[in-house]
Amino acid sequence: MPTPEILWPGGPRFIQAAHFRLGTDCVLLADFVNTAGAKRGIELGCASGAAMLLLLERSPGLHMTGLEIVSEAASLARENMALNDLTARSEIITGDIRDHRALFRAGSFDLVVCNPPYFPQGSGALPQDADRAAARSEILCTLPELCAAAAYLLQTGGRAFFVHRPERLSGLLVCLTAAGLEPKRLRLACRDAQAAPSLVLVEARRGGKPGLTVAPSLYLYDSDGTESAEYRRIYHRDTSSVPG
Q1: Residue 240 has pLDDT above 50, yes or no
Q2: How confident is the model at residue 239 (pLDDT cuts 50, 70, 90)?
Q3: How far is CA 110 from CA 41, 120, 167, in A?
Q4: 190 CB-contact burial (10 Å; exposed 0-12 / middle 13-18 / buried 19+)
């Protein structure tokens, strides 16, 4: 088994999966999630548990369930929870998101987190590896199916948090609204002030009233190419850290 990495000095330990590497999108999503008042959360497609780990580390009163279809990734997520003494506050279920009605009761959670596949099925060439292909493309679960699952799992007033690509934003908002999840907060993430957005973060509320707040854009780097103050905060770096 690979040697666990320390995510930041004094922070949690994490074993990387071959097919589900810890990426910027996962870290930004975990930072974007508002866990205030949340007691029971679920990550749909938790892979090796990175987002869950970051949320549990930050929120001592939170219990997280991870749902992952790839058994090897689910096993690694359990290992990551155990490495950080989080087994009592977490549960990893190996299963298909499309089977959510058989796996859970309606309204079982007050928080849903999802970093879904970014590309619709048939939109381009896929990796030969089946697990990597499923992580990249909506082969096993479409965006409407994900939003419907989130709506079923959330109690009224519960919140769902997604990260996606900007070109899929309109589709994501339509799917959320159709499922009864009202978009409430949106934030764009960019490399710097001159770059087009590369990620979009969206918060939606089950049964919420219409009204969307657009937060200031998140810039990862300043104009001189150094890490921005917010980037350093999110990654628990000090001002002397070197980008990596």
Answers
A1: no
A2: very low
A3: 6, 28, 28
A4: middle
- The model's pLDDT over 172-202, given as tens digits with 9 standing for 90+, comes to 999 999 999 999 999 999 999 999 999 999 9
Question: Which residues are within 8 A (CB) of 151 and not within 5 positions of it... i.e. 6 or more apart?
Answer: 160, 179, 180, 181, 206
CATH topology for 5-234? Rossmann fold (3.40.50)
Are the CB atoms for 95 and 74 separated by under 8 Å? no
Question: 3-class SS at 101?
Answer: helix
Tokens of 91: 């549960």
CA distance linking residue 82 with residue 37, whole number of Å = 25
* pLDDT (mean) for 48-52: 95
Instruction: Tell the burial category of 193 from Cβ atoms under 10 Å away from its Cβ (0-12, 13-18, 19+).
Output: exposed
Name the pTM for this structure.
Answer: 0.91
Report d(CA 204, CA 169) in Å as an integer: 13
Closest CA to 137 of 45, 33, 25: 45
Confidence check: pLDDT of 243 > 60: no
Residue ranges per structural domain of the chain: 5-234
Orientation of helix 143-153 relative to helix 169-178, angle to 10°: 40
